[in-house]
Structure formats: structure tokens, C-alpha cells
């Protein structure tokens, strides 16, 4: 574990200006704002990962939301997707509170870190393949810093899955061939030549499209989190009682 390295990485990510389209968009959103947040000073920069440097479970999303992370400066904070995710993390005992409103609201994650393969809010929530690839070295560096402790990763959505697999390979894990396909409930084990394997799990993204239509229910998300936490060796609540799952 290298907490100083992760802190420095977060600082460097927040200063990145590598993708002109994303820089222009995130800064335009921060200037014009949404009427409901007119009194906010938007973050308007790349959003670093969030969670302890000794995390055993990594949650990988897509990219910050224009009026969520791009406004608050913290992953999945201040938008409805984050409301769903952090409520579920709290329900299974992996977060200190069920809400994520702003970066100074006191929220803590227990053994969990949240990150994304693209750190800037993209127009229409759709980064280009080139932007994804340009941002990948940040994720690779984060994974390398987390390798001493991380034992499982829960990837939200097909885009995150496709973006994360090459990053896991570059960070030292072996991705099976053919590459495992994304699905809700997908599970693959990525061995490493010089350390513990990583359990990789797939979960539908916590987007409004998925949660409003019932494609991803709160129960499905809680179960995905409990399964991933168990593989990571973290205690997770289930059925109202604290327990550790090992499946």
C-alpha cells in the first residue's frame, strides 16, 4: 500500500487536460450550470477516485456525471446514480451513511474504493474510444497502487468492463482468453504471477435508465455488492445481520 502515491495520483488526475473535447465540455457545464445548482461553485475538473488507499474492493463506473461528480468533485456524488449506489453500500455495511451530497458531507467507505475509466464528464455520458484509451494510464496506475490489498472488483456496465479489462492486464493481472463477456452477475478470476488473484464481477450500471425501468433493482445491486465484498474478504450485511460471504 502506498497512500502517498495514491494521494499524488489523485492530485495529478485532477489537473489533467489531455482530452480537448472533455475539457471544453466539463468547463462549459461548470460555467453555465443547471438552474437547480446555480449557487454552486462547480468542480469542473477530472474527478479522482474515492475511498481508502487500502481498499479490498474496487467499484469501477463509467465517467462522472455533468451535474454530479463534475459539480461536487467526488465520484457518484450529487446525482441519482450515486444515490442508488451509496444507499446500497450503506445497506450492506460498506458505507458510513446512505447519502452522498457533497465532498465534505462526512461519507466514508469501508474497504471500498470507487473509480472510473474516464475521469471527466463526457457529453451525453458517452466518452469516445480515444478518450477512454487516453485516460487508461490513470486507471492502470491506480490499480498498481491498490494491488497490495485489492482482491475484487465490481464493474458497473459494459463500457466500464471493456475499458477495465486492458487496464487490469497492464496492472499485472492475467485476463483470460477469450476475454470474459460482460453480464450482470458475470464472474471471472484474474490470476497474477506475483501476487493474489483478482475476482472480477459484472453488474448493470446504476444509471437512471436501468434503475427507473427495473433492469437493476436495489436488491440486485445489494446482492452484487455482497458477493463482491465476500470475495474481497469484507464483511457485508445480508438479511439484517452482519456476515462475511466467501463465495
Automatic annotation (TrEMBL):
Q: Do you know which InterPro entries this protein is assigned to?
A: UDG_Type-4/5 (IPR051536), UdgB-like (IPR044147), Uracil-DNA_glycosylase-like (IPR005122), Uracil-DNA_glycosylase-like_sf (IPR036895)
Keywords attached to this entry: 4Fe-4S, DNA damage, DNA repair, Hydrolase, Iron, Iron-sulfur, Metal-binding
Membrane-crossing ranges are none
Write one Pfam family the protein is assigned to: UDG
Keyword DNA damage annotated: yes
Q: CDD domains per the record?
A: UDG-F5_TTUDGB_like (cd10031)
Residues in Uracil-DNA glycosylase-like domain copies? 48-225
Is Acetylation found in the keyword set?
no
Q: Which family does it belong to?
A: Belongs to the uracil-DNA glycosylase (UDG) superfamily. Type 5 (UDGb) family.
Q: What name goes with this protein?
A: Type-5 uracil-DNA glycosylase
Amino acid at each position: 500500500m502506498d497512500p502517498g502515491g495514491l494521494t499524488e495520483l489523485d492530485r495529478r488526475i485532477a489537473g489533467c487536460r489531455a482530452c480537448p473535447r472533455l475539457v471544453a465540455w466539463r468547463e462549459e457545464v461548470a460555467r453555465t450550470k443547471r438552474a437547480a445548482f446555480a449557487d454552486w461553485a462547480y468542480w469542473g475538473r477530472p474527478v479522482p477516485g474515492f475511498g481508502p488507499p487500502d481498499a479490498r474492493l474496487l467499484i469501477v463506473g463509467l465517467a462522472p456525471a455533468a451535474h454530479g461528480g463534475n459539480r461536487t468533485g467526488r465520484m457518484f456524488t450529487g446525482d441519482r446514480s450515486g444515490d442508488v449506489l451509496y444507499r446500497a453500500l450503506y445497506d450492506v455495511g460498506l458505507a458510513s451513511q446512505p447519502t452522498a451530497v457533497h465532498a465534505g458531507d462526512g461519507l466514508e467507505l469501508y474497504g471500498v474504493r470507487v473509480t472510473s475509466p474516464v475521469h471527466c464528464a463526457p457529453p451525453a455520458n458517452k466518452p469516445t474510444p480515444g478518450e477512454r484509451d487516453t485516460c487508461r494510464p490513470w486507471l492502470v496506475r491506480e490499480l498498481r497502487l491498490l494491488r497490495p490489498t485489492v482482491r475484487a472488483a465490481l464493474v458497473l456496465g459494459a463500457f466500464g468492463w471493456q475499458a477495465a479489462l486492458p487496464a487490469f492486464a497492464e496492472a499485472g493481472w492475467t485476463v483470460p482468453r477469450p476475454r470474459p463477456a460482460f453480464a450482470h452477475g458475470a464472474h471471472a478470476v484474474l490470476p497474477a504471477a506475483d501476487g493474489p488473484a483478482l475476482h472480477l464481477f459484472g453488474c448493470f450500471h446504476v444509471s437512471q435508465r436501468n434503475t427507473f425501468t427495473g433492469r437493476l433493482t436495489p436488491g440486485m445491486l445489494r446482492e452484487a455488492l455482497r458477493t463482491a465484498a465476500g470475495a474481497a474478504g469484507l464483511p457485508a450485511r445480508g438479511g439484517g445481520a452482519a456476515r462475511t460471504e466467501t463465495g
